[in-house]
Amino acid sequence: MLIENFRSPNDQALISTTESKARDDDRKPLSICLVGPGWTFTSGISYYTCRLANAVVDENFETSAILLRRLLPLRFYPGRQRVGLQRASMTYRPTISLYNGIDWWWGRSLIRAIGFLRTRRPNVMVLEWWTAAAFHTYLMLALLGRMFGARIVIELHELQDPGEAGLALARQYGRWGLRALLVIAHGCIVHSRSDRELLESGYGTLQKHIAMAPHGPYDQYNGVSGGSKAASATAVSAVRTAPRPDVVNLLFFGLIRPYKGLEDLLRVFNSLTEDEAARLWLTVVGETWEGCTQPAELIAISPYAHRITFVNEYVPDEVVGAAFAHADVVVLPYRRSSSSGILHIAMSCGLPVVVTSVGGLPEAASGYDGAVFVPPGDPDMLKAGLMKAVQMAGQQFADPRDWHETVAVIGSAAGMAPAMTRPCGSQINETSLVRERRTPHR
Asked: What b/e sequence results for 220-235 when a residue is b if at least 16 CB atoms lie within 10 Å of its CB, and e otherwise?
């Protein structure tokens, strides 16, 4: 008889007890804690964190969220004039345990966050990564999370913010910071093959669980009606200026930054013939960052300035809803991009969208029949794409994206067994889980 096959009665009792405990642990619902920016420094990732948290709790997982309240010193933030102003109408579900929030200087806000984590003790902590400004807090939370037994997942929206990438000190700090978090984390989530390739080319072959899931739909504006607040009435009226249906209203929406390519769109619009311009209107809505004033200058000197509406601010949700409800075509002439929340708003609204084939955008819009892809920085092809999309105006297209795709990979990215990743009261359905990808060892 082989000795390794021999089990005494005591050994058998110990094994049975251990297996019983494992089964009991498997029956516990997965507890997920999301960490991202709150509403004081409202950004696209603020919306993403809230929308994902609501999707997680809708899937019947125990859900909590820790928000970054004051992200960084005001003098370093391009949108400092609006900090603290209410811009979002969406809220976290009442069943989500919410801590709002941690300030960049920590103090008591971090002490309270530690108490929140100690009480909640999530199985998985998901850090929404988009800026190096969050690194020092994320590092502390990742270490605390591991101490309290959580598995750490980094969801990558950008490897590095484009503005930070242009500053040597911020660029190096951001790269070092993300590398440190990747060392601590059990895995990460990316939204496209393009992002995964950038991650591996920039940080080497990671011995981590890497899960891939597309950005979920931004459907939070579908029921938002414009003009509900007096403070935004002027902006709501402005985004409804285009005299539809006599014209096709082209919409550029989002932060005005050098990489967004708004100048490319304006040069094409300004070069149109009078006959071409006569049936079009251009609405531009966005806050200027990084001294990107050339778009405003091009609007001012445009021969069709009377056919351009320019709302130069970070608008509240009722204005967002009004702008997309009054649009016929959305135009995203980005020169580079990892992903785009604006693209997902357009897709949720079922609008035709002209989008450049850069970064993860082709994958984000894959399966969406309303997408017209054009190469970046090519005025002739951008014009051709605009004219093609104009012919599609009035049609509604189905959004192929679903938040379940993102929620399903959280456990996979954390390296957890399928039986551990089912929500409260559910049955195991391994075919519904998105297969994880683990990179090979070096």
From this structure: bbeebebeeeeebeeb
pLDDT tens-digit map of 27-43? 567 899 999 999 999 99
Give the CA dihedral 168, 170, 174, 180, nearest 10 degrees: 90
Query: Distance of alpha carbon 29 from its chain centroid, rounded?
Result: 26
The correct CATH number of 230-392 out of 3.40.190.290, 3.40.50.720, 3.40.1180.10, 3.40.50.2000 is 3.40.50.2000
List the beta bridge partners of residue 116. Answer: none
**Full 3-state SS string of 414-428:** CCCCHHHCCCCCCCC
The reply to whether omega before 423 is within 30° of 0 (cis) is no
> What does 212-275 look like in DSSP terms, one character per residue?
E-PPPP--TTTTPPTT-SGGGHHHHHHHT-S-TTSSEEEEEES-B-GGG-HHHHHHHHHTS-HH
Phi, psi dihedrals of residue 437, rounded to the nearest 5°: -125, 125
Give the CA count within 13 Å in the CB-facing half-sphere of 380: 0
Domains 26-216+404-438 and 230-392 share a fold: yes
Q: How far is the C-alpha of 170 from the C-alpha of 155, rounded, in Å?
A: 20
Please provide the average confidence, as pLDDT, over all residues in the chain: 88
What are the start-end ranges of the E strands in 317-391? 329-332, 353-356, 371-374
Pick the CATH number of 26-216+404-438 from 2.60.34.10, 3.40.50.2000, 3.40.50.1700, 3.40.50.300: 3.40.50.2000
Contacts of 171 (CB under 8 A, 6+ apart): 160, 164, 165
143 vs 431, higher pLDDT = 143
232-291 residue pLDDT tens: 899 999 999 999 999 999 999 999 999 999 999 999 999 999 999 999 999 999 999 999
